[in-house]
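User: Sequence in, structure out. Go.
Assistant: Echoing your sequence, followed by the structure tokens.
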Amino acid sequence: MKVMIVTDAWSPQVNGVVRTLTTTRREMQAMGHEVDILSPLEFRTLPCPTYPDIRLSVLAGNAARKRIRNYAPHALHIATEGPLGLAARRYALDNKLPFTTAYHTRFPEYVKARTGIPLAWTYRFLRWFHGPARAVMAPTPAVKTDLEAFGFDNVVLWSRGVDLDVFRMQDSHRLDTEHPIFLYVGRVAVEKNVEAFLKLDLPGSKWVVGDGPALAGLRAQYPDAHYLGVMKQPELAEVYAAADVFVFPSKTDTFGLVLLEAMACGLPVAAYPVTGPIDVLGDSPAGVMHDDLRQACMAALDIDRRSARAHAEKFSWRAATEQFVGHLHPAMQETAPA
């Protein structure tokens, strides 16, 4: 099957959406499918307001339309609600081409955190955007329920996975600071709530891995913490393996791939009991969820690393990709659209 995935999030961005799509393409190709990515790399871009690391394609409508028409995919998947996603959506509707979409991040909550725009306004836009899709893929049951509560009626589950060969238990001394070592990995942005971690009174040392618009301010405000930039996966696995607790302070994530990565390396998780951690951790002994994040951190120190690894082993990228392929809606007509 020929599949085109249209996304406004792509390399060199480093985030869960990019990693999910990159791995899904790899797994689909291994399954025998042909996958084409329509991304901002092909167009002139401008930095996203308040988040310059994200580049938005400009004046891409005609070129995107031509790319889709020339590729003539059997199935079209629109991964994001940005300029390329809008262009692909319009093309599909104009040509009666069935398509699917995905809900990767809590976009309304992020917009509200950055601009103050009410949630209802952004959810109204999302209902309009995703409404014509044959399926809207959500990463967890909790996110599916939330979307349905906001009026979505075409939501299906598309889970996530972890590379268990790269992210594995190993002896590592990558972080040479006092134990216990508490670690955060991810974008350093206001919606990730990293400050809730950094301001905790914890023994040992704190590490932050990642980059983002809030990094400079947090480094200045919390100079006693240790900071690393974006890392490649093998190096990141060594960092997970060297830490004692993975702290996930976000209250807005839909899934949190870093949770799986950490646990695959035998690193127990401390998190708030919110969407994302609830679905990923469930009732497993791999982490602790509590409204008091410090209490969760301290309790997670008692978790056997083997329990964290065992829970991560339940999440396979192949199984997640089979879910994705099963939700696609191939076009039935043989005639090429205009």
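User: And one key feature?
Assistant: The CA atoms of residues 23 and 34 lie 14 Å apart.
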